[in-house]
């Protein structure tokens, strides 16, 4: 048994009567009556443990905690558990990490304990504000809805966010733990000591904690290339989202939130990722030194109290005014409100001939009804674009055909860049002759901006494809991953094989993938442990290998069969985790029923982990023989073979495969009464979403309609028809795009 609280944003009121508002800070006296075989934890240290009897004469323990500091209700917390702990004291702060007894015994939280104190000291020194509590407990919860929560003095985590198995050689797990822990420890200052006035300024704590999570992680794991990780995991995903008209701005007015958003919906990528990206940009143009100096003053003024966005701007302004090195073109408030109070971000358009740079809101043109500059390898000073367009004489580079310009170097600014044809030609030329002249993060951004601009109708797909010609000399996996996600999106693998673009894509991509593929295949064959510090190999190697096998690269298929056969010979053998999913899938695909049956046997092995079970569920849907897929779906129906929540997973795995989608659809229509009783409308909706990808004609829509007209209520039928109509429209657009891609590949495939 275990009890743990999670009171953010407004659940404190369900535990004790209170004014449950972040600005109504108070001190709390907490006492917990509990079973004597358990321990009770709260924000403060326990000052008294006594016994009492209830009316039945049963004995209970009463734990009384010291009075808390002045704090917000959402940060009060308690845990009642029978866990063990490991402990260490750092600068008078007694740190204890609690977890299940066997996890403590096996050393699973030792890594976390090693870095907790280091991160605390790092932030104390950096911010020059000491941590005010005498103790900090961190608890690893086996089941927890959030990833982690920063309760003052009693932080809670999902087990996976705190536990590192000493046998795990790879650092990506360490990196994740270091990032999550730095985020929560960062909150002890931003959020706990100084709290936002209200949830409308939630980004003040989440954006800042997401900024410090990177500084903390790089401090304890200096080998990580955090600028790449930050751009790849934080900035790029939110740039992909933050461009629809209906996306909210970072800082919303209170009345708008009370009306249209639930508070929970504020805990999203705009708050966390955009908040961090804007903070990164702010620190970039102020310099980190001035930024931290302003934060220290802000923390000291508002300790044990509350602040809003303007309070932060005021403190930054004071620091800027007190020196003369950094000159801003406008007040901090004017500059920053334009990023936090309106949604989206700008796209900059550069014209080499006239030297003009203009900016506009980046929105989808198809639906129409600050800059760092690099020039020919010499870095240029920061330039401000304070109007909608401006001529920069330095940007007129026509003379030599090799003069080029790169904006937003190392992605310090939160925006995209649209270059004119001339500059793009020169950048493409540069990439082919000397790709390393452009920093890796900027290569990533150049290509990613290219695909995003295509998608939104700013440029043609052919222009973006020109930037991929150089890829044979690209050795960065995170760049490859982004290119492959654009050219071979995961949800389209089943479909693309039906188009004439497939053989062309195969020839074009494989030619460019071979160097990086062979580089990593060498490690997989000889010494996979050598990749233990290669963070991106641990995150993205799978996508590279899956694509190579999907494109039919013989060596990739052979490698998969080889490693899978090795596992069949010796079930104790572990296929390298980095490509385990690919190897299992293609081991089954290339094999016969013998390979499939082995996967089935291993799936039913009691000691395989949850992760391995999922890999095998997916692998069994990779079979190339129809009867195996049909049998698999039949197995899925049986109560005795599967826990019932697996059936829908199996169906969804099979339906996404190129030969599986018809088989799965027939299976669903034959067994609908049973499936519907078990999974209801959820399953049908998920399946229709996937089936929709294969729909290109009205006849196909009719076929699906005939089925769901008989099974769905009237209002649901309308929704399903809309979904299919929309998907058909998307598919037709995609078909047009694929024809353009195919034509371009036809011309360039031999380059």
UniProtKB/TrEMBL annotation:
Keywords: Aminopeptidase, Glycoprotein, Hydrolase, Membrane, Metal-binding, Metalloprotease, Protease, Signal-anchor, Transmembrane, Transmembrane helix, Zinc. Residues 2-75 form the Aminopeptidase N-like N-terminal domain. GO terms for cellular component: cytoplasm; extracellular space; membrane. The record marks 272 as: Transition state stabilizer. GO terms for biological process: peptide catabolic process; proteolysis. It is found in: Membrane. Binds 1 zinc ion per subunit. It is a single-pass type II membrane protein. Belongs to the peptidase M1 family. This is Aminopeptidase. It comes from Pedionomus torquatus.
């Amino acid at each position: 048994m275990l009890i743990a609280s999670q009171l953010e944003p407004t659940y404190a009121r369900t535990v004790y009567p209170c004014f449950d508002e972040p600005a109504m800070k108070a001190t709390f006296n907490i006492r917990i009556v509990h079973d004597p075989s358990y321990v009770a934890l709260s924000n403060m240290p326990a000052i008294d443990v006594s016994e009492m009897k209830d009316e039945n004469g049963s004995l209970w323990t009463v734990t009384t905690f010291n009075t808390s500091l002045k704090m917000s209700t959402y940060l009060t917390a308690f845990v009642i558990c029978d866990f063990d702990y490991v402990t260490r004291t750092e600068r008078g702060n007694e740190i204890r990490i609690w977890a299940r007894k066997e996890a403590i015994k096996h050393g699973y939280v030792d890594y976390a304990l090693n870095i907790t104190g280091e991160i605390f000291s790092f932030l104390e020194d950096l911010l020059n504000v000491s941590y005010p509590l005498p103790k900090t407990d961190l608890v690893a919860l086996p089941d927890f809805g959030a990833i982690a929560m920063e309760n003052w003095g009693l932080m809670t985590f999902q087990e996976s966010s705190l536990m590192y198995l000493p046998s795990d050689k790879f650092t990506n797990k360490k990196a994740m733990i270091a990032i999550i822990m730095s985020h929560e420890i960062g909150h002890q200052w931003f959020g706990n000591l100084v709290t936002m006035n209200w949830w409308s300024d939630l980004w003040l704590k989440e954006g800042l904690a997401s900024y410090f999570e990177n500084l903390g992680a790089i401090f304890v794991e200096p080998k990580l290339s955090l600028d790449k990780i930050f751009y790849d995991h934080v900035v790029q995903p939110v740039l992909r989202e933050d461009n629809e008209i209906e996306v909210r701005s970072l800082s919303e007015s209170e009345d708008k939130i009370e009306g249209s958003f639930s508070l929970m919906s504020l805990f999203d990528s705009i708050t966390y990722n955009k908040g961090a990206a804007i903070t990164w940009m702010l620190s970039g143009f102020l310099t980190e030194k001035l930024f931290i100096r302003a934060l220290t003053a802000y923390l000291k003024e508002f300790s044990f109290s509350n602040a809003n966005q303007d309070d932060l701007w005021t403190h930054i302004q004071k620091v800027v005014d007190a020196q003369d090195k950094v000159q801003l073109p406008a007040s901090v408030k004017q500059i920053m409100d334009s990023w936090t109070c309106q949604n989206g971000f700008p796209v900059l358009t550069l014209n080499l001939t006239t030297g003009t740079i203009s900016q506009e809101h980046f929105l989808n043109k198809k639906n129409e009804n600050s800059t760092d500059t690099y020039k020919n390898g010499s870095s240029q000073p920061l330039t401000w674009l304070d109007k909608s367009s401006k001529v920069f004489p330095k940007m007129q580079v026509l003379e030599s055909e090799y003069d080029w310009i790169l904006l937003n170097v190392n992605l310090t600014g939160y925006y995209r860049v649209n270059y004119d044809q001339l500059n793009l030609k020169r950048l493409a030329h540069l990439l082919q002759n000397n790709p390393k002249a452009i920093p890796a993060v900027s290569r990533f951004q150049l290509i990613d901006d290219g695909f995003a601009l295509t998608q939104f109708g700013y440029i043609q797909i052919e222009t973006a494809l020109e930037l991929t010609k150089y890829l044979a000399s690209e050795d960065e996996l995170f760049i490859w991953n982004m290119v492959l996600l654009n050219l071979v999106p995961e949800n389209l693998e089943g479909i693309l094989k039906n188009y004439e673009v497939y053989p062309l894509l195969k020839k074009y991509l494989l030619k460019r993938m071979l160097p990086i593929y062979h580089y990593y295949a060498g490690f997989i064959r000889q010494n996979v442990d050598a990749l233990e510090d290669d963070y991106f190999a641990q995150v993205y190697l799978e996508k590279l290998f899956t694509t190579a096998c999907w494109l039919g690269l013989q060596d990739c298929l052979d490698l998969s069969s080889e490693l899978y056969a090795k596992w069949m010979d010796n079930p104790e053998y572990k296929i390298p985790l980095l490509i385990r999913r690919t190897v299992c899938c293609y081991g089954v695909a290339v094999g016969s029923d013998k390979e499939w049956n082995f996967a089935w046997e291993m799936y039913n092995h009691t000691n395989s982990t949850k992760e391995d079970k999922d890999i095998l569920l997916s692998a069994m849907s990779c079979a190339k023989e129809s009867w195996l897929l049909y049998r698999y779906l039949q197995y899925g129906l049986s109560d005795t073979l599967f826990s019932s929540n697996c059936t829908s997973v199996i169906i969804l795995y099979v339906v996404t495969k190129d030969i599986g989608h018809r088989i799965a659809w027939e299976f669903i229509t034959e067994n609908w009464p049973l499936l519907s009783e078990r999974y209801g409308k959820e399953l049908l909706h998920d399946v229709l979403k996937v089936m929709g990808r294969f729909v290109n004609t009205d006849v196909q829509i009719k076929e699906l309609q005939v089925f769901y007209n008989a099974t769905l209520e009237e209002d649901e039928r309308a929704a399903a028809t809309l979904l299919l109509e929309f998907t058909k429209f998307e598919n037709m657009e995609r078909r047009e795009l694929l024809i353009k891609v195919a034509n371009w590949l036809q011309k360039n495939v031999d380059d």
